[in-house]
């Protein structure tokens, strides 16, 4: 694998780390090291990095807030790009624009202060704005894509494009952005309301989520997508798997579609439980559960 840091430092200004443990960058706190971890300083830095990666034919993937992802124990033999520095926020009327690296909980707090309503039910969802958009995070009834006007994205040739909602093809836990673009920013259309009322609704949504989900535990969020007309968590519970453990990984007692890292769980432990869940659920219900998390 490519490890010429001096050459790479001559290309970009952002932070570069060699053999960076990815468990330090994921909500699961699991995963081996990236050969190279890079945080581009700005859009120009990102463009130079993507062109460099393309020229050298280097493997890479983009890591936002590190939720909804499981990094394997062997890590990633390539370049991992962090979006931390793409964290701006601005408001114009009832529209808010956020950088892809802005933390989603912080973004919701900013919206409340600005009196922009509609996204309160996202309270308790970890990760970044960009990550939430790429997977169309939300509930079964409503995804973040419903609030989006357009996104600004860079393709892997370094070209920046504005892509409007009609072309984004949002569906349950999916958008068509993932394989082709680095998301730079997202423009949302929201409704005006009193900041105090928005804050109260956000806090109510967060309390409700805390009652039903282990949101403070080390996890990647929901492990499997809900199949049509069913709840993955309920299927897992009815298959008798609640609380089952492998090493320091276990299926949550509070919500069975969460796997928790109670200390030093490995990716192998989590993958073992995922395979067990899929097997038991299919055996009992003839339903194949599809992972919601991305496995690297």
From TrEMBL:
* UniProt function note: Cell wall formation.
Question: What sort of enzyme, by top EC class, is this?
Answer: oxidoreductase
Which reaction is this enzyme known to catalyze? UDP-N-acetyl-alpha-D-muramate + NADP(+) = UDP-N-acetyl-3-O-(1-carboxyvinyl)-alpha-D-glucosamine + NADPH + H(+)
Record-linked PANTHER family: UDP-N-ACETYLENOLPYRUVOYLGLUCOSAMINE REDUCTASE
Q: Which domain of life is it from?
A: Bacteria
Please give the pathway this protein is involved in.
Cell wall biogenesis; peptidoglycan biosynthesis
Q: Which residues form the FAD-binding PCMH-type domain?
A: 30-208
Name any one Pfam family assigned in the record.
Answer: FAD_binding_4
Q: What is its main location?
A: cytoplasm
User: Cofactors per UniProt?
Assistant: FAD
GO BP terms, alphabetized: cell division; cell wall organization; peptidoglycan biosynthetic process; regulation of cell shape
Q: Which GO terms describe its molecular function?
A: FAD binding; UDP-N-acetylmuramate dehydrogenase activity
User: Where is the protein localized?
Assistant: Cytoplasm
The record's active-site residues are 173, 222 (proton donor), 292
The identity of this protein, by name, is: UDP-N-acetylenolpyruvoylglucosamine reductase
* Sorted UniProt keywords: Cell cycle, Cell division, Cell shape, Cell wall biogenesis/degradation, Cytoplasm, FAD, Flavoprotein, NADP, Oxidoreductase, Peptidoglycan synthesis
- One cellular component (GO) term of this entry: cytosol
Q: Which residues cross the membrane?
A: none
What protein family is recorded? Belongs to the MurB family.
What EC designation does it have?
A: 1.3.1.98
């Amino acid at each position: 694998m490519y490890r010429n840091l001096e050459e790479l430092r001559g290309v970009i200004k952002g932070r570069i780390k060699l053999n960076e443990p990815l468990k330090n960058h994921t909500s699961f706190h699991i995963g081996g090291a990236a050969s190279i971890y890079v945080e581009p300083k700005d859009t120009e830095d990102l463009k130079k990095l993507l062109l460099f990666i393309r020229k050298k034919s280097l493997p890479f993937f983009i890591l936002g807030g590190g939720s909804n992802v499981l990094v394997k124990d062997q890590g990633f033999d390539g370049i991992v790009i962090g979006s931390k520095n793409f964290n701006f926020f601005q408001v114009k009327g009832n529209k808010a624009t956020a950088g892809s690296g802005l933390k989603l909980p912080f973004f919701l707090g900013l919206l409340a202060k600005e009196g922009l309503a509609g996204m309160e039910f996202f309270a308790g969802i970890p990760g970044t704005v960009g990550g939430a958009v790429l997977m169309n995070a939300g509930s079964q009834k409503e995804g973040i894509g419903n609030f989006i006007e357009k996104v600004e994205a860079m393709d892997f040739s370094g070209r920046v494009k504005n892509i409007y909602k009609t072309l984004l093809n949002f569906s349950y836990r999916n958008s068509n952005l993932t394989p082709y673009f680095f998301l730079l920013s997202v423009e949302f259309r929201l409704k005006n309301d009193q900041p105090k009322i928005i804050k109260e609704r956000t806090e109510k949504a967060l309390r409700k989520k805390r009652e039903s989900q282990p949101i403070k535990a080390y996890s990647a969020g929901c492990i499997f997508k809900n199949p049509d007309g069913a709840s993955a968590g309920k299927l897992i519970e009815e298959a008798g798997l609640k609380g089952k453990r492998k090493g320091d990984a276990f299926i949550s007692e509070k919500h069975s579609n969460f796997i928790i890292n109670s200390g030093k769980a490995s990716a192998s432990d989590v993958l073992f439980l995922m395979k067990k869940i899929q097997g038991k659920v299919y055996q009992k219900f003839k339903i194949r559960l599809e992972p919601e998390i991305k496995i690297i």
